[in-house]
Amino acid sequence: MPTPNDAFEDLLLYRIYRMSSVASAMVVRLCEGGYGITRREWRILALLQGHDGMTPSALADKVQLDRARTSRAIGALAAKKLIVRTPAVADRRGAQLALTREGQRLYKELMPQIQAINQRILSVLNEAQSTQFQDSLERLRVSAQALHNEAITALPKAQRRLGQKAK
Fold first, then answer.
1. How would you class 104 by CB atoms within 10 Å of its CB: exposed for 0-12, middle for 13-18, buried for 19 or more?
2. Of 61, 100, 110, whose CA–CA distance to 78 is shortest?
3. Which residues have CB under 8 Å from 87's CB, separation 6+?
4. C-alpha of 70 from chain center
5. What is the DSSP letter of 54?
6. Are 44 and 63 in contact (CB under 8 A)?
7. How confident is the model over 104-145, as pLDDT tens digits?
8. What is the pTM of this model?
9. I need a surface site. Which of 17, 41, 99, 153 has the fewest CB within 10 A?
């Protein structure tokens, strides 16, 4: 019979969190210590690579961040001259985002290093295991998305700032 702690430590989401937390720490140190950008800013920079003209709303959806955090990261990247915001042609209130030359240079320098971290983590798997893991990971993502879509309206919304559940 598992103890309460064993049961928690065996949960898929906790195990993924632990692995991600350790691996992400290396990326944070690399980004912040070596390049002066946050992990969130890196994620936005990387997703903008090759997607010039993306709107802030589309970017927020793609990086799975709320619009306020995305907006702050966009502002920080623009201040660092790594991205540029231009008014949307159809709607002057909207904006389109693109990497600057410096943003593209940073991406080209940083991406191989982050890919190497990912490869080192995956290196414990042989080719068949790696393929199976990638396939399983995608199936789990699809399953999680379906569960999210099904449950999102049924679950209570938290008020994180207050540390309480919503009324």
1. middle
2. 100
3. 94, 95, 96
4. 11
5. B
6. yes
7. 999 999 999 999 999 999 999 999 999 999 999 999 999 999
8. 0.80
9. 153
